[in-house]
Design goal:
Elements lengths: L1 H25 L14 H9 L2 H9 L3 H14 L4 H13 L3 H13 L5 H6 L12 H10 L19 E4 L4 E4 L4 E4 L21 H12 L9 E4 L16 E5 L1 H4 L11 E3 L3 E4 L13 H6 L2 H7 L1
Parallel strand pairs: 1-5, 3-6, 4-5, 4-7
Antiparallel strand pairs: 2-3
């Protein structure tokens, strides 16, 4: 009896391995690409903001060494942020580390720092103004005023065949609004194809909506985006929603998980409806997406 049980177990394992291999062979290979940096901006900026109050507290309590350590943590999160680089250079100068301060300031200017009046007037930088290279940094800072800000220049892309594709090139970060904005060109207001040329037999509702659109008394879903955020677990059908534009994500955006779940700091320049059959599956405090958002003090402060 015992041998029979073992044989059954071995047979089950063998069968399951064959099924798993069959499923693996039928699953299309996922193209691995590096995630685009732009889509990590909101989370990175949230992490940086968590250090803001401790930094202010250290400065108010005259703890320059602690302030410098906190600033270094912030700069490690975003080494190309010109404002963080400038602030860190000021703290280094306050600590008498002029050579490193000048080097950090040069990096901030290279990354787009564009406030020459701060270099001329800010007291912590007084010790740097007589050092070689400072006047050159001042000129470069002035030149940055008219230069396009990094991640500010994007090109609104066309919507092709009712598909609006999110890429790094049509997405930009707006610091003042704390959001990523993806831009599309508004699609032309074209009429629907004749009903008899559509592949599927239209329903009575589709026929009626098509008639209204042709009469000019309804727009259908013209100019409206649909963003499915559960990777088509529960999505809409294109044939049932005339003229609706479906949002898709480029591979480098999917690699950054820009296409999935809750993203409260993402926006489109066109009216958008969305669906996300997802939840926050924490092993201890699992909760819905709205509850997850409201339970985070920093998220709540930024969204109110």
């Amino acid at each position: 009896m015992r041998k029979f049980t073992v044989l059954i177990a071995i047979s089950c394992l063998f069968t399951s391995s064959l099924l798993a291999r069959r499923c693996a062979l039928r699953t299309p290979a996922r193209i691995l690409v590096p995630p685009a940096e732009i889509f990590s901006f909101p989370q990175r900026q949230l992490q940086i903001r968590q250090f803001s109050n401790p930094l202010k507290s250290a400065l108010l309590n005259q703890q320059p060494a602690l302030a410098l350590a906190i600033s270094a943590q912030m700069l490690r999160l975003a080494p190309d942020d010109p404002s963080l680089g400038y602030n860190h250079a000021c703290l280094l100068a306050m600590q008498g580390q002029d050579a490193l301060a000048l080097q950090t300031l040069a990096s901030a200017v290279k990354n787009g720092f564009n406030r020459p009046q701060d270099l001329q007037q800010n007291p912590p930088l007084a010790s740097l103004r007589s050092r070689p290279g400072f006047s050159l940094l001042l000129r470069q800072t002035a030149q940055n005023i008219n230069a396009p800000t990094k991640n500010s220049a994007t090109a609104a892309t066309e919507i092709t065949d009712h598909t609006a594709t999110v890429t790094a090139s049509n997405t930009r970060w707006i610091p003042d609004e704390f959001r990523l904005v993806t831009e599309f060109q508004s699609p032309p207001n074209t009429l629907l194809l004749p009903l008899n040329s559509q592949a599927n037999t239209p329903s009575p509702a589709q026929r009626l909506v098509s008639q209204w659109i042709r009469e000019g008394t309804a727009a259908g879903f013209h100019g409206l985006l649909y963003d499915n955020r559960d990777r088509d677990h529960n999505t809409l059908q294109t044939a049932e929603l005339l003229n609706l534009n479906f949002v898709e994500y480029a591979s480098h955006a999917r690699a950054a998980n820009a296409d999935y779940g809750l993203r409260p700091f993402r926006r489109f320049n066109l009216p958008t409806i969305a669906n996300a059959s997802t939840a926050y599956m924490d092993p201890v405090f699992a909760r819905s997406n709205p509850r997850m958002l409201l339970s985070n003090e920093l998220h709540t402060a930024l969204t109110i």
